[in-house]
Amino acid sequence: MAKTEHYEPTTDCQVLHPDIVDYVRERLPDTNVSLNLANLFKLFADQTRIRLLQCLLTHEMCVCDIAVTLGVTKSAVSHHLHALKLSNIVRFRREGQVIFYSLADEHVEKIVSMGLEHLLEPFS
Amino acid sequence: MAKTEHYEPTTDCQVLHPDIVDYVRERLPDTNVSLNLANLFKLFADQTRIRLLQCLLTHEMCVCDIAVTLGVTKSAVSHHLHALKLSNIVRFRREGQVIFYSLADEHVEKIVSMGLEHLLEPFS
DNA sequence: CCTATAGTTGAAAAATTGTTCAACTAAGCA
DNA sequence: TGCTTAGTTGAACAATTTTTCAACTATAGG
Q: Fewer CB within 10 Å: N-end or C-end of chain B?
């Protein structure tokens, strides 16, 4: 099942270390895990969205206030919030015409902190 | 300096809560922080690159072995490794013609773990 | 009911990113 | 020196993503 011979030939080279390849393949998580992880990190992979999250890290905000603070249209903000909402990264409450957005949990803070830690480390 | 009136008018709406906007703006990190954070998370925002990192999380590997394991060309792998190298996420050692890549530090593991934690949490 | 404003939506346009291709460099070996 | 293979590189192409635009919904107030 972990044999090296029947891999998809979508590549342009040969296995050089069959034992390593088999060892790694046996431990490689399911494809949908990497897909979900990549999709999650995509939400943090845009400067405007990072700044939006940094805003919400400080205080809950409505769409207009976010738009002015970041210097983008409220449509752009709304699209970003929609994506963040789908992945349970932000939540909202309505107060009349105004909708206040805030962070859904402490994961955003943790993920951003990990990123900052890497950026600030000595050997970078 | 934190007054609400002289924001860039790149947006299409008015500030609704000037006190919140000022409060948030005073605490918003510098723009280059968000840029560097976004650029870092971009490296985790692609399924192939996540799988590549998952490989290296298990064992150091050479370009060919990674290419076969992931089912992509060695050129694609090389481009990904180049980007990861620039951000000090992977390092390498040469052994004859073969170059073995491995993770530069424990941040990858931490960042990926945070992502997994969010994906597996009850309210998502 | 009419108007005004906050926010959403889908599609098109603009910008960015990932992969491939072909030519290249570097190392090993005869 | 000449051949083979591992890996890199840049440019072109393909795919994806972000922003904008215009039309839309929902709520408030007169």
A: N
> Does strand C come within 7 Å of the CB of A92?
yes
- Confirm whether pTM is higher than 0.85: yes
Q: How far is A102 from chain B (nearest CA, A)?
A: 13
Coil/strand/helix, residue B95: strand
pLDDT, tens digit (0-9, with 9 covering 90-100), for B67-78: 999 999 999 999
Distance CA B54, CA B51 (A): 5
Nearest CB to B16; choose among A11, A73, A98? A98
Token readout for A25 is: 């393949």
Question: What residues contact A104, with CB distance under 8 A and at least 6 apart?
Answer: A88, A89, A90, A91, B123
Its sign, for the CA torsion B85, B89, B93, B99, is negative
Q: Tokens representing B70?
A: 């992931």
Instruction: Using the structure block, give the residue that is written with the tokens 């996420």.
Output: B89
